[in-house]
Protein backbone atom coordinates (compact mmCIF):
# COMPACT_ATOMS: atom_id res chain seq x y z
CA UNK A 1 0.00 0.00 0.00
CA UNK A 2 1.44 3.37 -1.01
CA UNK A 3 1.45 6.44 1.26
CA UNK A 4 -1.61 7.93 -0.43
CA UNK A 5 -3.67 4.76 0.09
CA UNK A 6 -2.57 4.51 3.73
CA UNK A 7 -3.58 8.12 4.23
CA UNK A 8 -7.07 7.42 2.86
CA UNK A 9 -7.54 4.18 4.78
CA UNK A 10 -6.90 5.59 8.26
CA UNK A 11 -9.68 8.22 8.16
CA UNK A 12 -12.06 5.59 6.78
CA UNK A 13 -11.35 3.28 9.71
CA UNK A 14 -11.66 6.17 12.14
CA UNK A 15 -15.02 7.19 10.68
CA UNK A 16 -16.26 3.59 10.89
CA UNK A 17 -15.21 3.35 14.53
CA UNK A 18 -16.95 6.60 15.40
CA UNK A 19 -20.14 5.48 13.65
CA UNK A 20 -20.16 2.20 15.56
CA UNK A 21 -19.54 3.96 18.85
CA UNK A 22 -22.46 6.30 18.21
CA UNK A 23 -24.92 3.49 17.43
CA UNK A 24 -27.25 2.42 20.26
CA UNK A 25 -26.37 -1.00 21.59
CA UNK A 26 -29.01 -3.69 21.26
CA UNK A 27 -30.12 -5.27 24.50
CA UNK A 28 -29.98 -9.05 24.85
CA UNK A 29 -33.77 -9.30 24.68
CA UNK A 30 -34.22 -7.05 21.63
CA UNK A 31 -35.50 -8.81 18.54
CA UNK A 32 -38.48 -10.67 17.11
CA UNK A 33 -40.14 -13.63 18.78
CA UNK A 34 -42.88 -15.95 17.64
CA UNK A 35 -44.79 -19.07 18.62
CA UNK A 36 -47.49 -21.34 17.28
CA UNK A 37 -49.58 -22.11 20.33
CA UNK A 38 -50.26 -25.75 21.17
CA UNK A 39 -53.53 -27.13 22.48
CA UNK A 40 -54.16 -28.09 26.11
CA UNK A 41 -57.04 -29.64 28.03
CA UNK A 42 -59.07 -30.78 25.02
CA UNK A 43 -58.91 -27.43 23.26
CA UNK A 44 -59.66 -27.53 19.53
CA UNK A 45 -58.68 -23.91 18.87
CA UNK A 46 -55.49 -22.48 17.41
CA UNK A 47 -53.30 -19.47 18.04
CA UNK A 48 -50.18 -17.70 16.82
CA UNK A 49 -48.21 -14.80 18.26
CA UNK A 50 -45.38 -12.56 17.14
CA UNK A 51 -43.60 -10.14 19.44
CA UNK A 52 -41.26 -7.41 18.15
CA UNK A 53 -39.21 -6.05 21.04
CA UNK A 54 -36.98 -2.98 21.34
CA UNK A 55 -36.04 -1.95 24.87
CA UNK A 56 -39.16 -1.93 27.03
CA UNK A 57 -41.54 -1.68 24.06
CA UNK A 58 -43.10 -4.81 22.58
CA UNK A 59 -45.45 -4.89 19.60
CA UNK A 60 -47.84 -7.82 19.98
CA UNK A 61 -49.75 -9.57 17.22
CA UNK A 62 -51.85 -12.39 18.70
CA UNK A 63 -54.33 -14.30 16.53
CA UNK A 64 -56.68 -16.80 18.17
CA UNK A 65 -59.52 -18.82 16.71
CA UNK A 66 -61.71 -21.80 17.54
CA UNK A 67 -61.84 -21.37 21.32
CA UNK A 68 -64.97 -21.53 23.46
CA UNK A 69 -67.13 -18.77 22.01
CA UNK A 70 -70.43 -18.01 23.71
CA UNK A 71 -72.79 -19.16 26.41
CA UNK A 72 -76.31 -17.74 26.61
CA UNK A 73 -75.47 -15.12 23.99
CA UNK A 74 -72.53 -13.67 25.94
CA UNK A 75 -68.94 -13.72 24.61
CA UNK A 76 -66.60 -16.02 26.49
CA UNK A 77 -63.77 -14.00 28.09
CA UNK A 78 -60.24 -15.36 27.50
CA UNK A 79 -57.24 -13.96 29.36
CA UNK A 80 -53.67 -14.46 28.10
CA UNK A 81 -50.26 -13.72 29.50
CA UNK A 82 -46.52 -13.95 29.03
CA UNK A 83 -45.34 -16.25 31.79
CA UNK A 84 -41.70 -16.74 32.75
CA UNK A 85 -39.02 -17.33 35.32
CA UNK A 86 -39.29 -21.11 35.16
CA UNK A 87 -38.35 -23.86 32.68
CA UNK A 88 -39.90 -22.17 29.64
CA UNK A 89 -42.04 -25.18 28.69
CA UNK A 90 -45.75 -25.90 28.37
CA UNK A 91 -47.45 -28.52 30.54
CA UNK A 92 -48.57 -31.95 29.36
CA UNK A 93 -51.35 -34.27 30.63
CA UNK A 94 -48.71 -35.89 32.85
CA UNK A 95 -48.66 -32.67 34.90
CA UNK A 96 -52.25 -33.25 36.09
CA UNK A 97 -51.10 -33.93 39.65
CA UNK A 98 -54.53 -34.32 41.24
CA UNK A 99 -55.88 -36.48 38.43
CA UNK A 100 -59.08 -34.49 37.88
CA UNK A 101 -58.63 -34.49 34.09
CA UNK A 102 -57.63 -30.81 33.80
CA UNK A 103 -54.09 -29.40 33.95
CA UNK A 104 -54.83 -26.27 35.94
CA UNK A 105 -52.77 -23.10 36.32
CA UNK A 106 -50.94 -24.23 39.45
CA UNK A 107 -49.96 -27.49 37.78
CA UNK A 108 -48.60 -25.59 34.78
CA UNK A 109 -46.60 -22.99 36.73
CA UNK A 110 -43.53 -25.21 37.37
CA UNK A 111 -43.06 -25.36 33.60
CA UNK A 112 -44.06 -21.91 32.39
CA UNK A 113 -43.74 -19.76 35.52
CA UNK A 114 -45.72 -16.87 36.93
CA UNK A 115 -47.49 -14.09 35.03
CA UNK A 116 -45.01 -11.41 33.92
CA UNK A 117 -47.10 -9.49 31.39
CA UNK A 118 -50.84 -9.62 30.71
CA UNK A 119 -51.69 -9.48 27.02
CA UNK A 120 -54.72 -7.21 27.32
CA UNK A 121 -56.82 -5.81 24.50
CA UNK A 122 -56.41 -2.28 25.88
CA UNK A 123 -55.16 -0.44 28.96
CA UNK A 124 -52.59 -1.74 31.43
CA UNK A 125 -50.68 -4.96 30.78
CA UNK A 126 -49.23 -5.67 34.22
CA UNK A 127 -49.64 -8.93 36.17
CA UNK A 128 -52.32 -7.17 38.23
CA UNK A 129 -54.60 -7.37 35.16
CA UNK A 130 -54.11 -11.12 34.95
CA UNK A 131 -57.74 -11.95 35.72
CA UNK A 132 -59.34 -8.80 34.32
CA UNK A 133 -61.93 -10.47 32.11
CA UNK A 134 -63.04 -7.17 30.61
CA UNK A 135 -59.57 -6.71 29.07
CA UNK A 136 -59.32 -10.27 27.81
CA UNK A 137 -60.16 -11.56 24.36
CA UNK A 138 -63.90 -11.85 23.85
CA UNK A 139 -65.47 -14.83 22.08
CA UNK A 140 -63.80 -17.73 20.33
CA UNK A 141 -62.01 -15.78 17.59
CA UNK A 142 -60.18 -12.54 18.28
CA UNK A 143 -56.91 -10.70 17.78
CA UNK A 144 -54.70 -8.40 19.81
CA UNK A 145 -52.49 -5.99 17.91
CA UNK A 146 -50.91 -3.28 20.03
CA UNK A 147 -47.66 -1.98 21.50
CA UNK A 148 -47.16 -2.45 25.24
CA UNK A 149 -44.48 -1.76 27.82
CA UNK A 150 -42.75 -4.83 29.25
CA UNK A 151 -40.98 -4.84 32.60
CA UNK A 152 -37.48 -6.00 33.50
CA UNK A 153 -38.62 -9.50 34.48
CA UNK A 154 -40.25 -10.03 31.08
CA UNK A 155 -37.16 -8.71 29.30
CA UNK A 156 -34.91 -11.11 31.23
CA UNK A 157 -37.20 -14.05 30.52
CA UNK A 158 -37.18 -13.28 26.80
CA UNK A 159 -33.39 -13.07 26.80
CA UNK A 160 -33.17 -16.39 28.66
CA UNK A 161 -35.58 -18.14 26.29
CA UNK A 162 -38.04 -18.97 29.08
CA UNK A 163 -40.95 -16.68 28.13
CA UNK A 164 -44.15 -18.62 27.47
CA UNK A 165 -47.52 -17.37 26.17
CA UNK A 166 -50.60 -18.98 27.72
CA UNK A 167 -54.23 -18.40 26.69
CA UNK A 168 -56.77 -19.42 29.34
CA UNK A 169 -60.40 -20.52 29.18
CA UNK A 170 -61.60 -24.01 28.24
CA UNK A 171 -64.64 -25.16 26.29
CA UNK A 172 -66.85 -27.39 28.46
CA UNK A 173 -67.90 -29.27 25.33
CA UNK A 174 -64.36 -30.45 24.56
CA UNK A 175 -62.59 -30.41 27.94
CA UNK A 176 -63.41 -34.06 28.52
CA UNK A 177 -64.44 -33.71 32.17
CA UNK A 178 -67.75 -33.72 34.01
CA UNK A 179 -69.71 -30.50 34.50
CA UNK A 180 -68.98 -30.79 38.22
CA UNK A 181 -65.21 -30.78 37.65
CA UNK A 182 -65.36 -28.04 35.02
CA UNK A 183 -67.51 -25.84 37.24
CA UNK A 184 -65.62 -26.47 40.47
CA UNK A 185 -63.86 -23.44 42.04
CA UNK A 186 -60.62 -22.39 40.38
CA UNK A 187 -57.53 -22.90 42.51
CA UNK A 188 -56.33 -19.36 41.71
CA UNK A 189 -59.69 -17.55 41.81
CA UNK A 190 -62.36 -19.50 43.72
CA UNK A 191 -65.05 -17.12 42.52
CA UNK A 192 -64.46 -18.43 38.97
CA UNK A 193 -64.94 -21.96 37.58
CA UNK A 194 -61.86 -24.15 37.17
CA UNK A 195 -62.45 -24.45 33.43
CA UNK A 196 -62.54 -20.68 32.93
CA UNK A 197 -59.02 -20.12 34.31
CA UNK A 198 -57.23 -23.27 33.12
CA UNK A 199 -54.81 -23.04 30.16
CA UNK A 200 -56.20 -23.70 26.69
CA UNK A 201 -53.29 -22.74 24.40
CA UNK A 202 -49.58 -22.51 25.16
CA UNK A 203 -46.31 -21.82 23.36
CA UNK A 204 -42.73 -20.84 24.15
CA UNK A 205 -41.59 -17.60 22.50
CA UNK A 206 -38.67 -18.36 20.18
CA UNK A 207 -36.36 -15.58 19.07
CA UNK A 208 -35.96 -15.10 15.34
CA UNK A 209 -34.30 -12.14 13.64
CA UNK A 210 -35.27 -8.50 14.02
CA UNK A 211 -38.05 -7.87 11.56
CA UNK A 212 -39.40 -4.75 9.98
CA UNK A 213 -40.48 -1.68 11.87
CA UNK A 214 -43.09 -2.57 14.51
CA UNK A 215 -46.67 -2.29 13.34
CA UNK A 216 -49.65 -0.94 15.25
CA UNK A 217 -49.89 2.01 17.60
CA UNK A 218 -49.48 2.30 21.32
CA UNK A 219 -52.50 1.73 23.53
CA UNK A 220 -54.63 0.24 20.79
CA UNK A 221 -56.25 -3.17 20.83
CA UNK A 222 -58.60 -5.24 18.73
CA UNK A 223 -60.87 -7.95 20.03
CA UNK A 224 -63.64 -9.28 17.81
CA UNK A 225 -67.06 -10.23 19.17
CA UNK A 226 -66.45 -7.90 22.13
CA UNK A 227 -69.28 -6.76 24.34
CA UNK A 228 -69.64 -4.68 27.50
CA UNK A 229 -73.26 -5.61 28.08
CA UNK A 230 -74.45 -7.78 30.92
CA UNK A 231 -74.25 -11.45 30.00
CA UNK A 232 -74.30 -14.94 31.48
CA UNK A 233 -71.89 -17.79 30.91
CA UNK A 234 -73.29 -21.18 31.82
CA UNK A 235 -70.25 -23.19 32.78
CA UNK A 236 -71.58 -26.56 33.75
CA UNK A 237 -72.54 -28.13 37.05
CA UNK A 238 -75.34 -25.58 37.40
CA UNK A 239 -72.78 -22.80 37.78
CA UNK A 240 -73.30 -19.53 35.94
CA UNK A 241 -70.68 -16.83 35.40
CA UNK A 242 -72.47 -13.49 35.31
CA UNK A 243 -70.74 -10.67 33.42
CA UNK A 244 -71.76 -7.18 34.50
CA UNK A 245 -71.14 -4.03 32.46
CA UNK A 246 -68.63 -2.82 35.03
CA UNK A 247 -66.46 -5.87 34.51
CA UNK A 248 -67.41 -7.73 37.72
CA UNK A 249 -67.87 -11.46 37.36
CA UNK A 250 -69.66 -13.59 39.93
CA UNK A 251 -70.47 -17.27 40.06
CA UNK A 252 -73.88 -18.41 41.16
CA UNK A 253 -75.73 -21.72 40.95
CA UNK A 254 -78.61 -21.91 38.51
CA UNK A 255 -81.71 -23.98 39.13
CA UNK A 256 -82.37 -24.25 35.42
CA UNK A 257 -81.69 -27.73 34.09
CA UNK A 258 -79.96 -28.16 30.75
Name a few traits of the molecule:
3-stranded antiparallel beta sheet, alpha+beta, 9-stranded antiparallel beta sheet, 258 residues, 17% helix
- In this structure, how is the largest beta sheet organized? 9 strands, antiparallel
Query: How much of the residues is beta strand, in percent?
Result: 25-35%
User: Would you list the SSEs in sequence order as H and E?
Assistant: HEEEEEEEHEEEHEHHEEEEE
Terminus-to-terminus distance: 90 Å
The count of strands amounts to 16
Question: Average pLDDT across residues?
Answer: 80
Overall geometry comes to globular
Return Rg in Å: 22 Å
Number of helices: 5
Instruction: Report the structural category.
Output: alpha+beta
- Uncertain segments: 3-10, 12-23, 210-258
Helicity, as a percent range: 10-25%
Describe the structure.
This protein is an alpha+beta fold and 258 residues long. The chain contains five helices and 16 strands. Strands 1, 2, 3, 7, 8, 10, 11, 12 and 13 form a nine-stranded antiparallel sheet that branches. A three-stranded antiparallel sheet has the order 14-15-16, with no helix packed on it. The longest helix is centred in the first third of the chain and has 20 residues.
Q: Brief overview, please?
A:
The protein has helices at 3-22, 105-112, 152-160, 179-182, 194-197; strands at 31-39, 46-54, 57-65, 70-71, 74-75, 77-78, 80-84, 114-118, 137-138, 142-149, 164-168, 199-204, 206-207, 231-234, 239-243, 249-253. With 258 residues, it is α+β, with helices and mostly antiparallel strands. The relative contact order is 0.21.
Amino acid sequence: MNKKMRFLAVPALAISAVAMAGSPAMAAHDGSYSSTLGQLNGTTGTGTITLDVAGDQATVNLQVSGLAQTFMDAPYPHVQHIHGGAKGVCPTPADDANGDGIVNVAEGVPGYGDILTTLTTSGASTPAEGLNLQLGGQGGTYSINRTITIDDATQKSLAAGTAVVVVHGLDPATAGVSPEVFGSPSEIAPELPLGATSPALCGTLVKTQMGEMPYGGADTGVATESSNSTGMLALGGGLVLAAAAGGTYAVRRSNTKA
